[in-house]
Amino acid sequence: MITYLTLFKKEGVRLIKGNQRLLKKMNRTQVLDLIRREGPLSKAQLAERMKLTFAGVSKIVNDLESSGILFLRGEGRSSGGRKPALYALNATAFYVVAVDLSVDEIHVALMDLSTVTVDETCLAAPGDRTPRSYVEAVRLGVQTLLERSGIPRKKILGVGVSSPGPVNSVTGEVLYPPNLPLWNVVPLKERLEQELRMPVKVEKDANLHALGEKWFGAGRGADNLVYVLVGEGIGGGIVIEGSLYRGTPFGAGEIGHGTVDLHGPRCNCGNYGCLEVMASGLAVIRRIREKIRAGHASPHYPAPEKIQLSNVLKAFQCGDDLTIRELEETSRVIAAGLIGVVNSLRPDMLILGGKLSRGFPLMTDIVKGVIRERVVPALSEQLQIVKGELRDKSGLVGAAALVMEEIFTLQLK
Ligand SMILES: [Zn+2]
């Protein structure tokens, strides 16, 4: 007969065992994360940083070494006795597949744990723009990379996908992305997992640009950062205390849909005068078209309806006055849209990335100038405003980091 006491004891043992497992996992992830961030470390250094006993750390490091993820890499400086052995991350113990899915193309890369690209392929987006065709293209891309590299499936930790948002990152569903009208509610994670037979994680593009810069780019030293993706549209990703801030349960970072002109044009989102409709790449194109139609001559542009972002960036490189004025004003509007973000979040760092900010390098300085002038002074003093370092790779690197998050940081959910 089971008494209440037996039940209580059983439940107690289950809880203690569960907590021990959790503690063990936490310690393992902390060892890996410390070595990833700081480079090779000795057992004594790890024990000191983690406030654990040498014997405790030694066991964790030995386990990780026998699983192949850590390896012995030389000796450190002696503090009197024997030189301590240093342990480093074996970046090729496992691999991840990173997918950067945009309206125009699908980029698939196979990366090691330090995000060195082993092989990559870039496919044009399918003509019919249907979710089914995108899934098939990703499947083909992944298959090609696995075959070419000869890396066995068991060494692949998973697949990270950067997708146009909004994305429910809990379920991996893409929800009505404005630039892909045939996509309604697409269970992208589920469909790709069926096709690839590997674990898949899906996140909106701007979040992964932020995560990529935080882990491997300009944001490495910053705990709190805001990444602003300025391309055809304007997106944002927020990192708070080292982790991506997704909102409840998702949807945070829509910096592009804050109002900067109450009476401005209607935006895709239904609001009027959003930052995106006033200062994105498409907004610049719209204004240049209007000026040319109104009689402003410029030798750098084709017929107004044919103007693309690439024409704008080329005209800027050729020193076209109209373009320079438009891009300067656009940068000031972007800065205006970021004042509220800085005042409310007070990040350590603001990172500007995306095609338009890369093509117009003065944008960072203009944004800096406006922010310094307009943000509450005590808040802007320590704020760094920088360009993204990963350039057009930040989506892929972020998608890889999304998969690696699992092993390097414990996701308590
Ligand atoms: Zn909007």
UniProtKB/TrEMBL annotation:
One of its GO terms (biological process) is D-xylose metabolic process. InterPro entries: ATPase_NBD (IPR043129), ROK (IPR000600), ROK_cs (IPR049874), WH-like_DNA-bd_sf (IPR036388), WH_DNA-bd_sf (IPR036390). It holds the Pfam family HTH_24. Keywords: Carbohydrate metabolism, Kinase, Transferase, Xylose metabolism. PROSITE patterns: ROK (PS01125). The keyword Aminoacyl-tRNA synthetase does not apply. SUPFAM superfamilies: Actin-like ATPase domain (SSF53067), Winged helix' DNA-binding domain (SSF46785). One of its GO terms (molecular function) is kinase activity. Belongs to the ROK (NagC/XylR) family. Transcriptional repressor of xylose-utilizing enzymes. This is Glucokinase-like ROK family protein. It comes from Melghirimyces profundicolus. The lineage of its organism: Bacteria, Bacillati, Bacillota, Bacilli, Bacillales.
